[in-house]
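Sequence in, structure out.
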Amino acid sequence: MTTVAAVLGALDGVRDPELDQTLPELGFVTDVAVDGSDVAVRLRLPTYFCAPNFAFLMVADARRAVEALSGVDSARVALEDHFTADEINAAVGRDARFAEAFPGEAEGELDDLRALFRRKALTARQGRLCDALLAAGRTPEQIAAMLLSELPPGPDADRCRELRADLGLGAAGDAPAFVTGDGSAVTAADVPRFLRFARLVARSLEGNASLCRGLLKTRYELTDHEEVAA
């Protein structure tokens, strides 16, 4: 039998695809209930009209993450207080695709969208790493010559490796440490332009995440303590 802590740990690996932050980190997990081998999870979002495509990905990813736990036979993940909650919950519950959740309204699946935001997340995290290395005295030439295995350890480096593996951009230790969206190595001459773009992407992600937290706090009248605890 699994535990609530184990379920929350699994959900800590599920991210808002647009913001690249985890569902517990953002306060999107409302409740976790464990009954033997059955698990029920409730999710909430900052507004009633959050984009259905992102909502669908989070619900589907959460269900897969929980069902992968040892001792879990079934996982029910329910999105609450959202204008497409019924459609999303029903589709995810029967392992249907996004287009099947909205017949006649949605075309295609969400792989391209997911990949787009993974590239943005990779760019933002690489930018933070690059800034830190420059601040520590590295030159653009040294940064361009770095290997992935030489990145300073930490969450950004770990997430970069994960994102690169997901995107097929080369996650081996002997791969270039910094790459563009198509996997090309960042050269010394590219560093200033690469950093300008990466900083803009990072500010956009951070600003959107801050906005989402504020909207969630206002919508559910959360105190600062409750927001952190969520």
